[in-house]
């Protein structure tokens, strides 16, 4: 796949439920942890960041951090986990 899903929610929320094959970069994580995790991401792939819902802005923050560190193909999935659970995708 040419896409990497990044979950911006805290680790406990990620452990409870996350989109398949997503990577957790928690909004409340440490900077050393953030740097370590982004080293595992392929900068050539499209990175889609999500959080809980359309009103959640954690994904925006993590997406901005990724762009600051040189990832140029970054987008935000606005609906997040709530939208995913409502869709036919997760059924």
Helix fraction bin: 25-40%
Mean residue pLDDT: 92
Number of strands: 4
The major β-sheet equals: 4 strands, parallel
Structural class: alpha/beta
Q: Helix count?
A: 4
Beta-strand content bin? 15-25%
Gap between N and C termini = 21 Å
Tell me the strand order in the biggest sheet. 2-1-3-4
Poorly predicted ranges: none
**What's the Cα radius of gyration?**
12 Å
Shape: globular
Order of helices and strands: EHEHEHEH
Explain what this protein looks like in three dimensions.
With 91 residues, the chain is α/β, with parallel strands linked by helices. 35% of the residues lie in helices and 18% in strands. The protein has a 4-stranded parallel β-sheet, with helices on one face. The protein has 4 helices and 4 strands; from the N terminus they run βαβαβαβα. The chain starts with a strand and ends in a 5-residue tail after the last helix. The chain is globular, with a radius of gyration of 12 Å. The mean pLDDT is 92. The longest helix has 11 residues, at 58-68.
Quick synopsis:
Helix content is 35%, strand content 18%. It has 4 helices and 4 strands, in the order E-H-E-H-E-H-E-H.
Please render the helix and strand layout as text.
Elements (H helix, E strand, L loop, with lengths): L2 E5 L3 H6 L6 E2 L6 H8 L7 E5 L7 H11 L5 E4 L2 H7 L5
Spell out the key features of this protein.
91 residues; alpha/beta; 4-stranded parallel beta sheet; 35% helix
